[in-house]
Design a protein that fits this description.
By secondary structure, this protein is mainly beta. The protein has five helices and 46 strands.
């Protein structure tokens, strides 16, 4: 057995064993209180881990990336959508383990979404799923019944049959040791829910409490959180003692038992936000900043004059296994009710000014204007647009002038007229109780590259240079192919280079060529051509000019081709997605040498990430470097 096989075997053994949460917490607490006894506790943990293997009760797990701090000290450092589609995103009850999201899509089935995969595991109308603590099993709800799915075996079995006589079952939750499942039982939708607990092996069921949405708390006394009458309730399962912790719904407890996330409503009109608290409720904090907007009549789809409502509501927060993220459904109530599956990233430190500016621009690229506005201390007005649209950015630097913090950045905008724009902007920020916010922004230089007739011109701050950068006749030609139409332009200012996609023709044949043109030397080179491509709509170059992504139509379908320029390697992204095949693939932007893109799959926009160096596709759920 080589080293890699040994590591895999150990990892599988560790994954398959239950965790002694109480002992783990005691060891961690002791370690935090006595930092000077490093060597002693190192060997204590090793010895305990070895004993845990012998008695099938391991105590060692990788530590969380977020250091354990009070809930009030955690920051919502970033958020982005993983899945969205106007009017079609009706999924609910998502769960995550080791970078894989288990996702019920109502009327379609249960899916595994992670790495380079979007695969249907089970058919049917599935409404809720949870992963066992060791990641080997799923418990899910289908038509009011509870089922158990074995991930490796790819098999399902019925746990509890639901129906009019037996009642209907909802929102199951695994105990920390994986031996029990708490769930809600209803005879009809109007009656209060009743929480029961089932022994997975024996099948024995007993009542626990009246309430809904149960969630176990690991460590210490066996405890269950749940919702009752819009209150978060804690129950000691040994003593039966209950206590009301706060108003709210959808309690979700982190894997290590440190935090609980929930949705809390306040004010009139009612505004919902996601909150986080320590499980002992020593501290708590509002994570999101919902706002009031004009109200919509859901029957007519029209605005109601003089009435306001919350911009959105939230559903079913769920912790990632590593405790550094929350998956939350964000529901919009406009002329049409629709939702996004969001990932909220948490951090123990406040974002820096550069982070604030970068994330505000990212939000615009994601078309999330609400999130972009949250980075401003004032109303900046309409920030996004369809033509041209933001496709990338670069942070240029930061500093301080007259006691005011600033960040310089350039934003890239494009559309297929063809047109390309570089907007250099200085953002001024100040620090408040919720971290840095943008107080003002001033555009310093605006450079536009556009096609007029058969020539490409540059316009700086509204003044167009009378001499063209390039004429179509200057483009290189191969084997009697003619350059019929320039489709896309990207201008790399630092390298004085134009990148173009060009529709080319020879007899009755057409193809799409990728050309790099050196403006200093007046020389062009055709990098590649795609014979099956009819047209292209957008082109993205990474900041280091190592990779090019082109959205185009191949064989009648929208797809994205990525070039690794140094290796002269080409990747068609639709062919890198496993499971359900996408109907279309669209690029979003380059981030740290990786392409964020999304597919149209199962009538939804599903986001992925591509690394040209490894030629691998993953999702934003996977571990970061």
């Amino acid at each position: 057995m080589n080293e890699a096989q040994w590591n895999d075997a150990v990892a599988q053994l560790k994954e398959g064993l239950p965790v002694h949460e109480e002992l783990k917490r005691k060891l961690r607490t002791s370690f935090e209180r006595k930092p000077k006894q490093k060597h002693f506790w190192r060997w204590t943990v090793v010895a305990a881990a070895l004993l845990g293997v012998v008695f099938l009760k391991p105590v060692w797990e990788p530590e969380q990336i977020i250091p354990h701090v009070e809930a009030a000290s955690l920051q919502l450092s970033n958020q982005f959508s993983l899945m969205e589609q106007l009017g079609k995103e009706n999924s609910a009850g998502v769960a995550e383990y080791a970078g894989i999201l288990y996702l019920p899509l109502k009327g379609k089935g249960l899916y595994a979404y992670g790495h380079n995969d979007f695969t249907r595991l089970v058919d049917g109308d599935i409404s809720f799923v949870r992963v066992s603590p060791n990641g080997s099993q799923l418990v899910y709800v289908q038509a009011g019944s509870l089922y158990l799915y074995e991930i490796k075996l790819k098999t399902s079995r019925l746990l509890l049959q639901g129906g009019k006589e037996q009642g209907f079952f909802e929102t199951p939750s695994w105990s920390p040791d994986g031996t029990r499942i708490a769930f809600v039982k209803r005879t009809d939708e109007q009656e209060p829910g009743h929480i029961a607990e089932m022994d997975v092996k024996k099948g024995a069921v007993h009542d626990v409490a009246e309430g809904t949405y149960p969630a176990y708390v690991s460590g210490g006394q066996p405890t269950l959180f749940f919702e009752r009458n819009n209150q978060i309730v804690s129950k000691n399962l040994n003593t039966g003692e209950e206590s009301v912790l706060d108003t709210g719904k959808y309690p979700a407890v982190s894997n290590d038992g440190a935090y609980v996330a929930y949705v809390k409503a306040q004010g009139e009109p009612v505004v919902e936000d996601v909150w986080i608290a320590d499980t002992n409720f020593k501290t708590k904090k509002q994570l999101t900043e919902n706002q009031l907007v004009e109200a919509w009549d859901q029957q007519t789809g029209k605005l109601i004059e003089g009435k306001q409502q919350a911009r959105y509501t939230f559903e079913q927060p769920t912790w990632s296994r590593d405790g550094r993220s929350l998956f939350v459904y964000k529901v919009f109530h406009t002329n049409e009710v629709w939702k996004k599956l969001m990932r909220f990233e948490l951090a123990a430190s406040k974002p820096k000014p550069e982070d604030i500016v970068a994330r505000s621009i990212q939000a615009l690229i994601y078309r999330d204007e609400d999130y972009a506005h949250s980075f401003f201390s004032y109303d900046p007005g309409y920030l996004t647009g369809t033509s041209p649209r933001q496709i990338g950015y670069k942070i240029l630097g930061s500093g301080e002038v007259e006691g005011k913090q600033y960040v310089d950045a350039e934003t890239y905008l494009s559309y297929a007229d063809p047109y390309y724009q570089i907007s250099k902007t200085r953002y001024f920020l100040s620090e408040g109780p919720n971290g840095y916010r943008i107080d003002n922004m001033e555009e310093t230089v605006n450079t536009e590259i556009s096609l007029w007739g058969d020539a490409i011109y540059m316009t700086v701050n509204g003044n167009r240079n009378p001499l063209p950068l390039l004429e179509r006749k200057d483009l290189p030609r191969k084997d009697n192919w003619t350059n019929e139409q320039i489709c896309n332009i990207v201008y790399q200012e630092s390298a004085k280079t134009l990148w173009l996609t060009v529709k080319q023709k020879k007899d009755n044949m057409t193809k799409l060529g990728l050309i790099r043109y050196d403006l200093a030397n007046k020389q062009g080179k055709e990098i590649d051509s795609i014979h099956a491509a009819q047209s292209s709509s957008i082109m993205l170059i990474d900041a280091d000019q190592k990779y090019v992504a082109i959205e185009l139509i191949i064989d009648g379908k929208e797809d994205t081709v990525v070039y690794h320029l140094q290796r002269e390697q080409k990747t068609i992204l639709s062919r890198r997605i496993q499971g359900s095949k996408p109907q279309a693939v669209h690029p979003r932007f380059w981030e740290n040498g990786k392409l964020i893109f999304y597919t149209e799959t199962e009538d939804r926009d599903v986001f992925f990430r591509f690394d040209p160096e490894t030629n691998n596709v993953d999702t934003m759920n996977d571990q970061k470097e």
